[in-house]
Write a structure and sequence with these properties.
- By secondary structure, this protein is of the alpha/beta class.
- It folds into 2 domains: 30-132, Beta Barrel (OB fold (Dihydrolipoamide Acetyltransferase, E2P)), CATH 2.40.50.140; 138-174, no CATH class.
- 20% of the residues lie in helices and 28% in strands.
- The protein has helices at 104-112, 119-132, 147-159, and strands spanning 34-44, 47-52, 57-61, 81-86, 95-102, 138-144, 162-168.
- It has a 5-stranded mixed β-barrel. Strands 6-7 form a two-stranded parallel sheet.
- A hairpin with a 2-residue loop joins β1 and β2.
- The chain is extended.
- The relative contact order is 0.13.
Length: 179
Amino acid sequence: MVKNTTGGTGTKSLARKHQSNGNAKLRLPAEELEQIACVTKMLGNGMCEIYTAANVRLICHIPGKFRGKNKRNNLLSTTSVVLIGLRDWERPAKNCDLLTIYEDTHINQLKNIPSVNMNNIMKLRNANMMDGKEDTTNEIEFGYKDEEEDEKEKAIATVGKTKEVFTLENTMEVDIDDI
């Protein structure tokens, strides 16, 4: 039995006997039903949305070998480049199966192979990376509406930040103790 030296939950399950080497060898599409694609959305329940190099949207089913303990070495996210297998009995193709998840070193090797078209896939991948870094700052300001407020709203529109302004009419005062 593996000696638990670090302690904590799940330490024994992370032992070397449970880890796999991953895919050390680069796997290329061998048939016409195997294609390289980019993951754009995680749907849950073992499925994700992908786009192929021909810009076709498919639902990819994640098999059990990419879940559980093996998920540590095969992490699938919205910017992952994967090898999929189309289902030959579906016309038109709507679903596919996940075969391999490419690491960054494999993606660099795929770019250098002229027979593999990676242009559209890299555009999708870069677009998904930029979506995650978007700055979404929402500011809320409370106050009374005056002529100065109108000037501030015009200034806010020119800056480009999203700002919500709530105004109260000067009809009655709010007593904090009544609340």
